[in-house]
Amino acid sequence: MADEFTTGVHLTDEQRLDWLRLIRSDNVGPRTFRTLINHCGGARAALDALPELARRGGAERPGRIFSREAAEREIEGSKKLGIALVALGEPGYPARLRMIDDPPPLLGVRGKWAVLASNMIAVVGSRNASAAGTKFAERIARELGEAGFVIVSGLARGIDAAAHRASLSSGTVAVLAGGHDHIYPAEHAPLLQSILPEGAAVTEMPLGWEPRGRDFPRRNRLISGLAVGVVIVEAARRSGSLITARMANEQGREVFAVPGSPLDPRAEGTNGLLKQGATLVTEAADVLTVIRPILGQRIEQPIGEPDGGPPALPVPDTSERARITDLLGPTPVSIDDLVRLSQSSPAIVRTVLLELDIAGRLERHGGGLVSLV
């Protein structure tokens, strides 16, 4: 594997157990997880801090902390299914996924690990795909695979499935919205089995998790996060593929769109992306011309479990906490604006936001924006 996959942290079994407990606890998402690790010095200390942080954030009662026994069961169940829980920064964790604002602290990986070290291009689109759209998805996925790229998609019906099938021999990665034992749609379980010999399936969700509507946007950020660029083949005006395109833009990924007939509602979204500046694609060469100069650029390493003691966690006084909280509302605002308007230090503002987050009162948006729930 490339160097960026062979450097970084190596969690002990105890640390992996603590990481799993922390990310599975109530009100702890990927961004909050990283903040807790930074503030508390490690997952074990963060677990100990959760009740007090929730109290200071205004929670009526502490949220559920994932038990050690439940974490041990999940790790054992994962091993039985051939699933590895790879931690952020460990060897094998996809390098480009590390770059996004909210990478999963633990990624469940099944299949051929080597594909995760490859350069990936996402191919996504309409579930209700046209015959022409399906044929084009197959062609571009096959040609990109022949050019040395691994195809990543979401295992959905239509364009996703066509892209996976066309790239089975060259390698393809399926990003799941649920747990490894709850494949959606269920009829694609045989397709997933066909993917695993030369490709992989990944998810951040626990075993037993059945995907719900809000889980698909979470999955989409991983599809774009894994890839150097995203090709949208067909997408209606309101489409999950457009969410993937938006997230790709936020993550600094290249966005490509295939033009379609103005009379076909399945092309309304892709044609709209072209008007907004997406790169027009009619053949694989259009993608390769843009992508190849990007390859080889330095990929930053994330921090892992700190080796030293925890940094000091500032405790805001009552007036500081009230001043910062009063600036928040249902409209997302930037953290920089909160620092400026509250006249508090960035560390104090981040601590108050962490308290509100653990109390279940804060919602984090893309671009460093936050709002009250």
Describe, in plain words, how this protein is organized in 3D.
With 373 residues, the chain is α/β, with parallel strands linked by helices. The protein folds into 3 domains: 3-96, no CATH class; 110-291, 3-Layer(aba) Sandwich (Rossmann fold); 318-372, Arc Repressor Mutant, subunit A (Orthogonal Bundle). Helices cover 40% and strands 12% of the residues. It has helices spanning 13-23, 30-40, 43-56, 68-80, 131-146, 159-166, 189-195, 215-226, 240-250, 268-275, 284-291, 318-326, 335-342, 346-358, and strands at 84-87, 106-111, 120-124, 150-153, 172-175, 200-203, 229-232, 254-257, 279-280, 333-334, 362-364, 369-372. Strands 1-2-6-5-4-3-7-8-9 form a 9-stranded mixed sheet. Strands 10-12-11 form a 3-stranded antiparallel sheet. Strand 7 (229-232), helix 9 and strand 8 form a beta-alpha-beta unit. The longest helix is centred in the middle third of the chain and has 16 residues, at 131-146. The radius of gyration is 21 Å and the shape is globular. Residues 1-7 have low confidence and may be disordered.
Can you give keywords for this protein?
Arc Repressor Mutant, subunit A, disordered N terminus, nine-stranded mixed sheet, globular, 12 strands, Rossmann fold, 373 residues, alpha/beta
